Amino acid sequence: MKTQKFFSVAILGLALVFGANSFAQKTVTVGGAPMYPAKNIIENAVNSKDHTTLVAAVKAGDLVETLSSKGPFTVFAPTNEAFAKLPAGTVETLVKPENKTMLQGILTYHVVSGRIDSKMIATAIKAGNGAAEFKTVQGGKIWCKMDGKKLVITDEKGNKSTVTIADVYQSNGVIHVVDTVIMHN
Question: Which residues pair with 29 in a beta bridge?
Fold first, then answer.
């Protein structure tokens, strides 16, 4: 009888933990579309009207399969407006087949291995005395710090991008929407 009660309490405890995790990962709206935590990065991104340029670039860079895989990944996802800040003709040039390697480098510079939400970033910033360094999938580095209440990403060129929507949980990671395309050297 005691063993049965123990297992019942343990199962109830697990249910509460998993229930709390499911509650913490609620559906967020990005670009007018719900981003479902049970769907992967690509399944959600294709529905955001604010990320049509990013989705087109991911397709041109042959990264759909990668970002649909198990991961987990943390993606700093530039909006269409972020891509529009680039010099005229940049996106059109990057999506050409002959520039696929360069495009892949730029896109994977926006990806960090692991599921790193804003709480983890804040902890890393605090431990790093005001800034946290992350290695991207591309191999470069980005730095995160707080500017007031805003999370700011600095790239290797010194450009800054602000997170406009944090913690968009996916089945294979988390997305942080950013307002500027970040670039590596």
Answer: 34
Tally Cβ neighbours within 10 Å of residue 110: 27
For the domain made up of 27-178, the CATH class stated in words is: mainly beta
* Residue 126 backbone dihedrals phi, psi, to 5 degrees: -60, -45
- Mean pLDDT score across all residues of the chain: 83
> Rounded CA gap, 147 and 88, in Å?
29
Domain boundaries, the chain: 27-178
Q: Which two tokens stand for residue 6?
A: 């123990």
* Percent of the chain whose predicted confidence (pLDDT) is above 70: 85
Residue with token string 């191999």: 139
Burial of 11 (C-beta count, 10 Å sphere; 0-12/13-18/19+)? exposed
pTM to 2 decimal places: 0.83
Element (H, E) at 178: strand 173-178
Instruction: Work out the angle at residue 89's Cα, subtended by the Cα atoms of residues 95 and 102, and round it to the nearest 5 degrees.
Output: 40
